[in-house]
User: What shape does this take?
Amino acid sequence: MAISLDIAHKPADETANAAAAHIAAPAVTEEKPSLIGLDRDDLARALEAVGVPPKQVRMRVNQLWHWLYIRGISDFDKMSNVSKDLRARLKFAFTIERPELVTEQISVDGTRKWLFRFPSRGAGKPVEVETVYIPEEDRGTLCISSQVGCTLTCTFCHTGTQKLVRNLTAEEILSQLLMAKDRLNDFPDADAPEGGLDTSSNRRRITNIVMMGMGEPLYNFDNVKKALLIASDGDGLSLSKRRITLSTSGVTPGIPKTGEEIGCMLAISLHAVTDELRDVLVPINRKYKIQELLDACRAYPGLSNAKRITFEYVMLKGVNDSLEDAKKMVQLLKGIPAKINLLPFNPWPGSPYECSDWEQIEAFADVVNRAGYASPIRTPRGRDIFAACGQLKSESERLKKAEREALEQAQAAGEA
Ligand code: SAH
Ligand code: SF4
Assistant: This one.
């Protein structure tokens, strides 16, 4: 049975209304800008804004970086090598608080799903975001969201049924990683969290991250880039770019930039091998056709047998799962160092498709394997807590809908 934990709201910071005269800090704590998600240059500017002398700025940036991303602290008072006075000035102007943890669910297979709530901090509405952790034998993968909802409407994807609420900020993207590390006790010196994992093993819990949660990361490129460059910074969170994968539905103009400016691994949600079918399943295909997409993949910097592009292919019964489709895929991908992930379709309430039969998925995989491609069939993880690929959708959205329906029913009953 999956377990679910409701976590009480954190109390508001009492220093809320304190604001130093010379700093343009908003009056409400929640609206204070966060230092999380700033690159080193932005952090330097933030330090200058609170009066750190230019000569000290670099050293202070390094100190803060260490506290935020190696030690994982979320309280200025723990920065023991930063003077009390500077800590107070930083606290007046900025925050390093984590988002609120609304729920934590744990699947029978160990997958964890969190719902985080972020205040607006001037970025638009406050938002709720889902993040998923998938433990495996030799790795732990965190699946991070880049947007709340999605502007694209892939017909097999639950997130695609939720309109875009807004892009996540770099802080909100990176904080998903920091929160997950907190909950998994994955910062070296931190205390074990209530309800978190035990401390008996020194193993690193998050070894990989995938931008495969809610949203299309290439429609929020700048924020995703900032967050991923911080996650891979060797003096901080230190995740190798080989272990960071960005998945796109095919926003072709963003692909070269991803390679050049982020340098992470790339995954493409292919799902169909003809434009006719892909136009329906992945409607962005109407704008960027398969050939154009694959040309951008061929030109992705640094490709080799050790650095391959992953092509994701959701198995939809009677729609895209014939052996002809498998053969066509092999032809299409010729010359691209590629891995093919076959994703059994994860159903969601009202979804218009069925998952292909297991024998069909295996026969499909055989064709692809015989052509020399690794083509693992991804075991769906966390289905019981709606954490599997394509099942994410803000809990808040679901609740609001349920509340709305209850209200409508009550009104209808009242009018009758
Ligand atoms: N928007 C990006 C990132 C999301 S990644 C993208 O589309 O690539 C999530 C992966 O899960 C994508 O490959 C997506 O196509 C796939 N997916 C979506 N809905 C699914 C479902 N119901 N079952 C299985 N996989 C699904
Ligand atoms: Fe958006 Fe990706 Fe879902 Fe398509 S598959 S609707 S791009 S999240």
Remarks:
- DSSP finds eleven helices and twelve strands in the chain.
- The first strand starts at residue 3 and ends at 6.
